[in-house]
């Protein structure tokens, strides 16, 4: 079965590699030659444009950094709609806004092509291990047709509702994740500055109501010496903004504050660091570093 994969960065690259390993013929496109070469060495076929990758593909999959790049890759001069054939299914794993999704889906439908939003959570580890959580926006019938591909990539598939419902769910998920990240950074740096032991703090918080999946995650990211850039501050900033735009007529005071913290991190040149490294703002202000010797 032929599959196209457009955008093979941290997430898309790992997902495409799993599809190659599962026996799919995978044609990949990415403006980064290094990203394409890495997959070609695993058995994927390199393409020169999204249109070339999409030619003859039953499933056309995308994992892109923004609504604009998604628009270009699908609707642009050499976008997938130039060659995709009637009946092929386009699945977007990027995080974008519901309005962009609905607009692209309506244009694709006029060509007989179905467009599905399926943003993901689970990070690079989930992409690598095929354990992503997929938040899918499409009809129940169409979802059934996607099962063969989804079972290679996902540990859990949640049908969120019609087109755009997956993106609405994902933006809500990421705004809460960002709020949790900054809430932990603010309190932990203050507490360590005041003399608390981070290891003891984590033990107690984890046992109480202040525990969270984000706190469990920090020993793999912020608390390590290397601080691996799994999910860039720039991408989280994009998601917070998209979510706040979506809820622009609603009171979102915490979201706005957290956006300002991410703005500050980007203004300091931290945009390509991991989203949890937004807390380096607090670390610098207070002159402390959140690190656990046991973290790796
Ligand atoms: P990334 O920057 O590592 O990868 C994006 C890739 O898209 C890059 O290789 C880039 O060269 C390519 N690209 C840029 N413009 C393109 C275009 N016009 N056509 C084709 N390819 C293009 O980003 P990522 O971390 O893999 O994230 C991809 C998407 O998944 C984003 O929407 C992000 O918000 C979402 N996401 C990421 C994570 C994570 O943990 N990294 C988790 C969940 C969701």
UniProtKB/TrEMBL annotation:
EC number: 1.1.1.291
Residue ranges constituting the 6-phosphogluconate dehydrogenase NADP-binding domain according to the UniProt record: 2-161
Signal peptide limits: none
A Pfam entry, by short name: NAD_binding_11
Residue ranges occupied by any 3-hydroxyisobutyrate dehydrogenase-like NAD-binding domain in the UniProt entry: 164-278
Sample GO molecular function, one term: 2-hydroxymethylglutarate dehydrogenase activity
SUPFAM superfamilies assigned: 6-phosphogluconate dehydrogenase C-terminal domain-like (SSF48179), NAD(P)-binding Rossmann-fold domains (SSF51735)
Entry-linked InterPro entries: 6-PGluconate_DH-like_C_sf, 6PGD_dom2, 6PGDH_NADP-bd, HIBADH-like_NADP-bd, HIBADH-related, NAD(P)-bd_dom_sf
Source taxon at top rank: Bacteria
Record keywords, A-Z: NAD, Oxidoreductase
Protein name, as recorded: 2-(Hydroxymethyl)glutarate dehydrogenase
């Amino acid at each position: 079965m032929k599959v196209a994969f457009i955008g093979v960065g941290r997430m898309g690259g790992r997902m495409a590699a799993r599809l190659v390993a599962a026996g799919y013929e995978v044609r990949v496109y990415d403006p980064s030659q290094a990203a394409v070469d890495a997959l070609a060495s695993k058995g994927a076929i390199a393409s020169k444009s999204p249109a070339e990758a999409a030619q003859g593909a039953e499933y056309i999959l995308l994992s892109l950094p923004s609504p604009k790049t998604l628009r270009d890759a699908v609707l642009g001069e050499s976008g997938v709609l130039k060659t995709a054939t009637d009946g092929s299914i386009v699945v977007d794993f990027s995080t974008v806004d519901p309005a962009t999704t609905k607009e692209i889906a309506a244009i694709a439908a006029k060509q007989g092509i179905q467009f599905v939003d399926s943003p993901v959570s689970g990070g690079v580890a989930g992409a690598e291990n095929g354990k992503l959580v997929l938040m899918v926006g499409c009809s129940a019938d169409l979802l059934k047709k996607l099962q063969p591909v989804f079972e290679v990539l996902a540990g859990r598939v949640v049908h969120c509702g019609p087109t755009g419902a997956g993106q609405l769910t994902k933006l809500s998920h990421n705004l809460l994740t960002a709020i949790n990240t900054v809430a932990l950074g603010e309190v932990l740096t203050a507490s360590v500055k005041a003399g608390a032991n981070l290891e003891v703090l984590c033990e107690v918080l984890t046992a109480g109501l202040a525990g969270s999946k984000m706190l469990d995650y920090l020993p793999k990211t912020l608390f390590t010496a290397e601080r691996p850039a799994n999910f860039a501050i720039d991408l989280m900033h994009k998601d917070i903004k998209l979510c706040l735009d979506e809820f622009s007529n609603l009171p979102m005071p915490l979201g706005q504050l957290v956006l300002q913290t991410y703005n500050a991190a980007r203004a300091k040149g931290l945009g390509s660091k991991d989203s949890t490294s937004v807390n380096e703002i607090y670390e610098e202000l207070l002159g402390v570093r959140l690190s656990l010797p046991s973290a790796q």
